[in-house]
Amino acid sequence: MLVEEFRMHTSLFGVRRFLLFPVFVAVVVTASAWLLGLTGTAMETVVAGVHLLVFFFGLQVGTAGLVGRDAMRNVLGEMTLLVFSGRTLPVSRRRLLSVFLLKDLAYYFLFFLTPITAGFLPLVAVGELSAANLVVLWLSVTGTFGLGAATSLTLVGVLSRSQVAVLGIVAAVAAGIVAEGITLVSYTPYGAYLDQTVVGAVGGFLPFAVLLVVGPLAFEPTASRRVRRFESGRFDRLRSLGDGLTARPLLEITRSSGSVWKVVFSLGVLFGVAALLLDRVAVATRIEPSAGIAFGTLLALGTFTTYNWVTQFDEPREYLRYPVGMDAVFRGKRRAFLALSLPTGVAYLTLAAVWYPVVDLLVGLVVFPLVSVYVFGVTAYLTGLSANELLFDTALFALYGAALAVVATPLLVAALAHGSAPVPSLAVAVALSVVAAAVGAVLSRRVGVRWHSRLRTE
Amino acid sequence: MPAVETQQLTKEYGAVHALDGLDLTIERGELYGLLGPNGSGKTTTIEILTGQRVPTSGEVSVLDIDPVENPLDVRRAVGILPEREDPPSFLTPREYLQFVGDVRDIADVDARIEEWSTKLEFRGILDTLSTDLSEGERQRVMLAQVFIHEPELVFIDEPLVNLDPLMQAEVRDILTAYCEAGNTLFLSTHFMEVAEDLCSRVGIIADGKLVTERDPQSLDEDGLLETFATELGGESAVEAGRP
After folding, report:
1. Which spans are transmembrane here (chain A) (predicted)?
2. Chain centroid to CA A399: how far?
3. What CATH number is given to the structural domain containing B119?
4. Are A74 and B135 within 8 A, CB to CB?
5. Which residue of A has its CA nearest to B74?
6. What's chain B's average pLDDT?
7. Global pTM?
């Protein structure tokens, strides 16, 4: 499976570009840590932030189990990866899945988590971080990512058996935190980083180890295998949102594992990141950022995951068989993208009203949809219908990151400036969002011609 | 004017010459079969003829339309079934055919779904999710999407793959009747019997070149296989041609 993974990436992007990816990650981490240092952010805050981001990334990666489950369930499908060879090889599906997960962990360890840690090497050189702490950081970052992935995979596995059980687990954890005052951090690898003792290490890594075993055991690819029938008429109803090219991705998302909840979960991860970052910024800098601009921006960046879901089931060349241009295909994708992401984002902005003033959040209702239009335009233009694969191409990843940062950075600065200059910051945020949406709309209009031509000449 | 005409068609993928000066003429109403070993250029030929791929050089005309310049016009006029493609996993056959009707602007698509699901015997699974269908059932749905807009020219890569013997016979009848109505069928296949039974003319392609063309009805038993072996050279070619 490791060979398979390596060949898949190198055949797509070439060995050199693929191997540059970890170097790029390390450089980004070093630059970010240095920039945060310039703003007076403490090293321990940066380390905490890295763990937080890696945990949420792990959660996101773990939802890949949803896709895997569909593929595993589709026992009559083509076998293109070893993980789907359970029908022909004397290996159980559960074992194949376990090996697949370990392979994924090894892959992210080599190409993502180790480079993140390596990004801190310059800080060791200047004495900001000890060499011993760097080694512990390496382990805790890896464990934190694994914890995130194992958590979402376990929840997906339990979900495949009982939705009530998932609600029960979530409620039990919440009750433990609220009623018993359990400090969850102590039971994460980050807790082991903070408490570098044997007890700290055991407490910090035990839940990860348990979930690593429980996840694959909970996962039952054939649990809900049955012939599924749907009443006719759904396609026509969804078609009323635009056309058949809009209705199709909406049906595919709602019927695949996780249904629309995977969109809600993916944006929820970004909502969690945004909420924690806002909280940390307020504590570390005593600045009161604009929650509306910050949530609007970060949730809009998170709609990249929605784009991924609406294109998840596509084989781009299929559309070359139909008498519609790729512009019509992307128009349908955009409608489906907006139909899913806008209500979800607005729901999270509404949820934020529990903690933040409603007036402060109102600007988020302007920023979020406009920046989402930009995210769609950029993602579609640069990655076509294969966002997931192409973003592992270092050059494209860097270009994509830069394109998002061009809009997100000034918006987040505007959010931070809100306390000292509320009216100008709001004006800048709205104006930037409008310009971004216009750019996104232009890119969306050009994307069809670009990808139609590319697919035909490749 | 012929239904399909190519002159000195070439297609290069980097250093690989998938098509190397292909000259092909298919008259209207013909049931033409393109035979060849793996990698000989069959799929690339279909992809260029249907506007899915741009050739490196050469002239091509399909129903008097240039698929390089007007790919959507060609796709509107023809039906296409690639060898390895299933209906979308999370749509039912009815929804997939409604989707095809939508992108092809078919006004009475529901009536045609009834017609083709009856002909190809999959009415009973019209509302079953495609991911839960067998390979043969999926192939029948894919065949329906080829004909549902009543095209005058159809390209099919391996038409009988995954079908049981009874359904194979049904599909052979449908294809024959389709051509008898004056339409044109372009088949790409590895199977000699399919080509011999169905086709009015067979072309053998190797290394991107049309090696020979024959009328299979005028050949003796095993004639097509022998021709295939002779043109491609050696026993390995004979083996390649056996179903």
Report:
1. 18-36, 48-67, 105-125, 137-159, 166-187, 199-219, 260-278, 290-310, 336-356, 362-383, 395-417, 423-444
2. 18
3. 3.40.50.300
4. no
5. A323
6. 88
7. 0.81
Nearest by CB: A323 against B104, B126, B135: B104
ipTM over 0.85: yes
Residue linked to tokens 């996101």: A60
CB contact under 8 Å between B127 and A231, yes or no, is: yes
> How close is the nearest chain B Cα to the Cα of A163, in Å?
21
Question: Is residue A260 a contact partner of residue A316, using CB atoms and an 8 Å limit?
Answer: no
Q: How many CB atoms lie within 10 A of CB A286?
A: 8
- Quote the number of domains for chain B: 1
What's the pLDDT tens digit per position in A155-210?
877 877 777 887 888 788 777 766 666 677 888 899 999 988 999 899 899 988 88
Query: Which residue range forms the structural domain that includes residue B157?
Result: 4-241
SS (H, E, C) chain B: CCCEEEEEEEEEECCEEEEEEEEEEECCCCEEEEECCCCCCHHHHHHHHCCCCCCCEEEEEECCECCCCCHHHHHHHEEEECCCCCCCCCCCHHHHHHHHHHHCCCCCHHHHHHHHHHHCCCHHHCCECHHHCCHHHHHHHHHHHHHCCCCCEEEEECCCCCCCHHHHHHHHHHHHHHHHCCCEEEEEECCHHHHHHHCCEEEEEECCEEEEEECHHHCCCCHHHHHHHHHHCCHHHHHHHCC
Q: Distance between CA B67 and CA B73 in Å, rounded?
A: 8
**Backbone φ and ψ of B111, nearest 5°:** -65, -40
A228 in contact with B, Cβ within 8 Å: yes
